[in-house]
Amino acid sequence: MTRTRIPLYGTLVLLLLAFLAPLLWALSGSFKPRGDIFAYPPRLLPDPFTLDNYQRLLSGQPFWRWFLMSTVVALVATTVSVFVCALAGYGFAKFRFAGRRLLFGVMFSSLSVPFAVILVPLFVILVKSGLGSPWFALIVPWVAPAFGIFMMQQYIVQSVPDSVLEAARIDGASEFGIFRTIVLPLLRPSLGALAVWQFLQSYNSFLWPLVLVSDSSQYTLPLGLQTLFVSEQRQYDLVLAGAVIAVVPAVALFVVLRKQLLEGLSTGAVKG
């Protein structure tokens, strides 16, 4: 049995190295002088080791403003999105109403539409309606993603028994009370997985902020780092330092929600 697993383990190790190599190169490059980042032959360990990249990034660029903008927008978008997706998924999973299948089919079909197709119409609608403020408009595309609604609907169908809901209704509980006190606690694993996915989608978004934001004081982190990359000096050292710091919120969220995330993925694997 062990010998038959050697090719599998070998393949997994190679894949792990392929995923880790760019991350390790970025981490190493953030501590190197600019001239040593592309030195040949490449060296994984910085020599000399320097913190100058981080000092120049934090003191000479509005990095913390970019960081705050991206983090706040992603946290708000994630919180709203998780609640809306759970509520919509509950409606599709447990209620029967006219046009339900058609509406769900339209929603599900929207997964095949690239965001670039609706980017300009969405921008025009927000501007014409007076809702083009970046603090609001940056959140709009992530409020009710079709993938999140579909994910919640599938999990609720599998994990929330109708008998429990009927018992709560007999006891006089309101529909929203049932959702808040019964359904949401049962959805914790899937909510954690959705929160991680949604945070990364909003936090890493580049195309939508690029179209929406014109004031450099309201740049998100991807836009801010892009300005360093396209500058005349091609400040790769500052970009790598910023990218390393940018990873911190995503890693922190994963650490906080790792139990729910892993439980949600394992539950989906078993029930799938």
UniProtKB/TrEMBL annotation:
Q: Which CDD domains match?
A: TM_PBP2
Where in or outside the cell is it found? Cell membrane
Residues crossing the lipid bilayer are 66-90, 102-127, 133-157, 178-200, 238-257
Give the membrane topology, semicolon-separated if more than one: Multi-pass membrane protein
Which InterPro entries does the UniProt entry name for this protein?
A: MetI-like (IPR000515), MetI-like_sf (IPR035906)
Q: Which Gene3D superfamilies match?
A: MetI-like
User: Has UniProt tagged this entry with the keyword Transmembrane?
Assistant: yes
Which biological process, per GO, is one annotated for this protein?
transmembrane transport
Signal peptide range equals none
Any idea which UniProt keywords this protein has?
Cell membrane, Membrane, Transmembrane, Transmembrane helix, Transport
Give the principal location in a single coarse category. membrane
* Residues in ABC transmembrane type-1 domain copies: 67-257
- Protein name per its UniProtKB record: Sugar ABC transporter permease
Q: What is the lineage of its organism?
A: Bacteria, Bacillati, Actinomycetota, Actinomycetes, Kitasatosporales
